[in-house]
Amino acid sequence: MILHPAVIALFVGSLLTSGMLVATAFFAVKILCHWDLASGSERQLSFERRTYLLATIMACCCVFQLLSLFLFIHVADSLSTLFPGAMCAAGTLNLNRFGYPTLILKTATFLLAGVWLILNHADNRGYDYPLIRIKYSLLLMIAPLLLIETGLQGGYFLSLQPRVITSCCGSLFGGEAGGMVPTLTTLGDAPVLAALGGVITLTLICGGIYLWQGRLGYLFAALSAATFAVGVVGLLSAIPVYIYALPTHHCPFCMLHREYGHVGYLLYATLLGGGVAGVGMGGLQPSGGWRAWHRRFPRFSAVWSFSPWSATGCSAGSRPGR
């Protein structure tokens, strides 16, 4: 294991987060089995008192999980100078079999943690805890994923060997390489950008309908998820060639470097934030939509204003609080 400060921070932070999340998951099971707001029993009163403490612990874990994805990418990129052949995070993550699976799981837990924070923010403002079962069910989904991610991340860092020669991003993301990701780079710029523009337009239209009529909330969430998926394809195929001004360079990590203005972090934050915001809209639908929010969440202010294609979602969420 490389004793880099950021590596130690990620390693220790993931262990602590996993431990707190497992402890919280046991309480979540009790909530799902025995929660009854109409009951005045001692057990129910204990649940209502403890849920604020545990929700705060869970919120801290989710915030760390959001930050850990960017820290992990930054660490992988900064360690590239230690390994022959690596030019960016692409080569560093390819050093062993744990690198890219860890990145994929971190992305998944980022999205789930972001949605959980939205649900928790709304639920804490409802007088009748309208989303408590949904958010604790989501917690039970996040917990095993985070445990697997922690194990993969530990395996990745513990298996790093500075003398190992790895591949550069050109060979990993070039058209000559095998696998699904290099295949995406052959789709062509125009079709991918057209698909991205089309799905963003549909998402905005659906968001506008939801804003004014309170309908199609689930469709807006589904379109936001589709926008995220197409955006990922765009980051692997069409967008990098315009940033690098090279038609054969498709690496999604070199754009994190200073010579490109660190624009990659902005693109990642926009894409991930838009996905979280849009899917979070769908998570709020069981509470009855924005008409029910007007009664339950009088001061609720939406948190999904991260991306251009979720702008209407922000307006829809903030409408009841006006």
Task: Outline the fold blueprint.
Elements: H1 5-34, H2 42-78, H3 89-93, H4 99-123, H5 132-158, H6 169-173, H7 180-184, H8 189-213, H9 217-236, H10 239-244, H11 263-284, H12 289-296, H13 311-318
Short description:
69% of the residues lie in helices and 0% in strands.
State the end-to-end distance.
Answer: 52 Å
Number of helices: 13
**What's the main sheet like?**
none
Q: Strand portion, in percent? A: under 5%
The ordered H/E elements are: HHHHHHHHHHHHH
Task: Evaluate the radius of gyration.
Answer: 21 Å
Low-confidence stretches: 296-322
What is the helix content?
55-70%
Taken from the alpha-carbon principal axes, the silhouette is flat
Number of strands: 0
Name the average pLDDT: 79
Structural class: mainly alpha
Task: Give descriptors for this structure.
mainly alpha, 322 residues, 13 helices
Please tell me about this protein's structure.
With 322 residues, the protein is mainly α. The chain contains 13 helices and no strands. It is flat, with a radius of gyration of 21 Å. The protein starts with a helix and ends with a helix.
